[in-house]
């Protein structure tokens, strides 16, 4: 792996473990066993590293949350989107947990974030429409924007909310699983009978995972 990518991966690991605010470029270079000069050769400051991490995040986000024009079973698609939400929130948990602060310090990053979220929102509308087509949910067209916004809000804001409620508590996989359950709870009221059956299967799997981790 090239040094430039090693820096991104190493920084992501440290940010997730200790919080982005607590990590400096010196911590990153020491963690990787390279000189600060070598790090600065590739990135002039920590903010550039954060932007590089965000670029990777963006690529994964838009790839995972794209509509599928296929005959996949509806449960397979539901699992895909739930698992994608979980894996992204876990992999980039430092970003989700402190989103407002991170983007407020960098106008360039904030602009990029808003552009990506708008693209994601378009994809989410198409995904929810596909669930309507699969007879999993019933949402009136006029209510679609608000429904999508609510789902988007929970996914984006769950870890920030949890971090605010428990300032000294580290983000855990169980905490993210609880966020997934919260999303399913939002979908249940508009689910069809078929949709509720499949949501129940997903919910049971998430609850079992949460229980296993607690033990």
TrEMBL record:
<feature type="DNA-binding region" description="H-T-H motif">
    <location>
        <begin position="24"/>
        <end position="43"/>
    </location>
</feature>
<dbReference type="InterPro" id="IPR001647">
    <property type="entry name" value="HTH_TetR"/>
</dbReference>
<protein>
    <submittedName>
        <fullName>Putative TetR family transcriptional regulator</fullName>
    </submittedName>
</protein>
<feature type="domain" description="HTH tetR-type">
    <location>
        <begin position="1"/>
        <end position="61"/>
    </location>
</feature>
<dbReference type="Pfam" id="PF13972">
    <property type="entry name" value="TetR"/>
</dbReference>
<dbReference type="InterPro" id="IPR009057">
    <property type="entry name" value="Homeodomain-like_sf"/>
</dbReference>
<keyword id="KW-0238">DNA-binding</keyword>
<dbReference type="InterPro" id="IPR025722">
    <property type="entry name" value="TetR"/>
</dbReference>
<dbReference type="InterPro" id="IPR050624">
    <property type="entry name" value="HTH-type_Tx_Regulator"/>
</dbReference>
<dbReference type="Pfam" id="PF00440">
    <property type="entry name" value="TetR_N"/>
</dbReference>
<dbReference type="GO" id="GO:0003677">
    <property type="term" value="F:DNA binding"/>
</dbReference>
